[in-house]
Fold:
Amino acid sequence: MRRQSIRRLLLLLLLVFFAVSALYAETGNSVGSDGQTPWWMWSLGLFIITFLLGMLAVLAGVGGGSVYVPAVAALFPFNLDFVRGAGLIVALTSAIAAGPRLLKSGLASLRLSMPLALVSSLFSILGALVGLSVPQNIVQAALGVTMMVIVVVMVAVPRNEFAAVREADALSARLGIHGVFQENQSSAPTQWKIKNTPVGAALFMVIGFMAGMFGLGAGWANIPVLNLVLGAPLKIAVGTSSLILSVNASAAAWVYLHRGAVLPLVAVPSAVGMMLGSRIGARLLTVVPSRVVRWVVIAFLLLAGLRSLLAGTGVWM
Amino acid sequence: MDVSTMQDSGKGRPERAVYATVMSLFAAVGLAALIAAFFIYALQLLPTFRPPQETVALWHLSADQLAAMTAREARLSGRLGLASGDLVAIAPVIFLALATIFAFLSVSVVFIRRKNGWYAFFAIVQAAILILAAAGVFP
Structure:
């Protein structure tokens, strides 16, 4: 009975989400820049949308930072610069809030994150510089393509709970990247180590660049690379991704801050809404049909990506 | 309930605790300040260069266009482009972005004490990159 009412509540929230989204999409361009709509309505609307996004993103198993930029760019009349700046602040606050708990519980590896975050953050700065320099229609079209890649990754790439790596590669062995994996309290602890470290580092350069350029939280890419390419256990990959994300986001955020691309009116309601939504979403994880929500979010990302691509290419302004 | 626990090897623990402590301190203070500062800004308790309602009319401009317009208006009016209310609104965001710099500087001390050259190097270089970004070295 309780489960059924939660399903109904979720369905209602989804309907509200799409109704509000449709309303903003309809009215956004006409009233967004005339100054007639009270400013607090925009902030409130942003808070509600990001709250729902945060909740749905957790239920769908993607980070809120991955869905924020395409969703807000599609639904609100803000310039893409401010959406990307706010996207990095959203990703940063979420990652900083989650990081300590993940580290203390042993679900994130600092040693695994540090070399990868180092290369990734350099490229996120580069991505931010490029993203703020090239014409906006190109960024928007590229964002559309990126969203479609994210959808493909979400649909097609499997995850591996714990693929034991038999032999660590030379670089990770030299850096002492390894740990202990214990599935549950009754099972025996097992050593984990990683492979393909140079390939992983190269992939994190690309991920960092995209995160900086589009203001995206890059959990959608970090986790598959850590899990499938490097061979880290899935739960370690999820936790460590959050650490890497916090470094990438803060590195790129400085570039956006210096360029004046962070507006408190956009960034603060988004960050708070996303964090609260994620917390509620995490509590609902055990009782809602996350598979359905996942497909809803995938469809939404696909549509937002298509919208961005068409807007960037001038087909649908 | 299936409770999974995974840990770094024993060698990794001290720096992990230091990093987590610094991050949790910044998260707690930063998030509270973020909300408080937003209300100070929104309620106009401190003067701002541009009140929120005027910002709404300009957020369709690119960051460069808005910065250029603000600089021009500031020059004409003889005021600074940032008033105390603007600084209060953006300060918690800056504080949150500083978290990783302080976390890496703190763990670099731990790594140096433990004579772990590679990770001390990573932590110092990472902090240096973030400090350069914070200083606006990357244009």
Q: What stands out?
A: The longest strand of chain B covers residues 5-8. Helices of chain B lie at 13-42, 52-56, 63-77, 84-113, 117-134. Strands of chain B lie at 5-8.
